[in-house]
Each structure stands twice: as structure tokens, then as C-alpha cells.
């Protein structure tokens, strides 16, 4: 059964961060879609006092899965009181445009309100 959750296993976190070339840090987290012990997809994010930045979505080629990972990650931000969610240059802007999640491309700000709308890029 597929489960989407924030990872807490430090070994698995290090393994996935190595996969994308990111260093572990206290403000970095991973949201993962897990089937048993296997990670099917994941996103890497960082938290600051008032915002979140999505750094990676893996894989970004499976649009419905990437949409689910992005929505799950934004949900974590909102549930932790982070009202602004940004994306890093390491996230596919093409994917974000397809999913219609970009609110302000200059600030790299995502539209968190899209979380409450149906997926439009997956059709």
C-alpha cells in the first residue's frame, strides 16, 4: 500500500539527498511516497521561519505522481504555518507551469491555494 509521509529515517534521508546531490541539514526534509520499504517518489524541501522552499521533486517525468508529491509537500508547509511556498531552480519550471502552480515566477512563489483545487496538468 502506498503511503505518503515525511521521512524520519536518517539513513534513508541521507540516501535520497545523495541521490539528488544535496547535503543533509537541520532545516531540510523529505516527503516520500513509500510502498513498503521502497521509495517510489520524493520531494526535498527546506523550512524557514515563515516559508518553505521545494528543492527537488523526483521523478518529475511522472506528472500525476509529481503533482501528488508537490501537493503533499505544500500541505506540510501549510500545516506548519508556512504561508509562502517557493521553488528552487532545481525544480522543473516546465512541470510547475503544466500543473499551474506558479503564482509569481520572478519570486519563484508557488500558488498554495491550488492545493484545494483539482489537478489540471494530469489530464
Outline the biggest β-sheet.
Answer: 5 strands, mixed
Helix percentage: 25-40%
End-to-end Cα distance, whole Å, is 24 Å
Strand order of the main beta sheet, please? 1-2-3-4-5
Low-pLDDT stretches are none
Elements, N to C (H/E): EHEEEHEHEE
The quaternary state of the protein chains shown equals single chain
Beta-strand percent range: 25-35%
Separate helix tally? 3
Search tags:
alpha+beta; 3 helices; 5-stranded mixed beta sheet; 123 residues
In short:
28% of the residues lie in helices and 33% in strands.
Describe the overall structure:
This protein has 123 residues and is of the alpha+beta class. It has helices at 10-20, 63-79, 93-98; strands spanning 2-6, 28-35, 38-47, 51-58, 84-87, 102-104, 109-110. The strands form two sheets. The chain has a five-stranded mixed sheet with strand order 1-2-3-4-5, sandwiched between helices. Strands 6-7 form a two-stranded antiparallel ribbon. A hairpin with a 3-residue loop joins strand 3 and strand 4 (51-58). The mean pLDDT is 93.
Write the layout of secondary structure elements.
Blueprint lengths: L1 E5 L3 H11 L7 E8 L2 E10 L3 E8 L4 H17 L4 E4 L5 H6 L3 E3 L4 E2 L13
Parallel strand pairs: 4-5
Antiparallel strand pairs: 1-2, 2-3, 3-4, 6-7
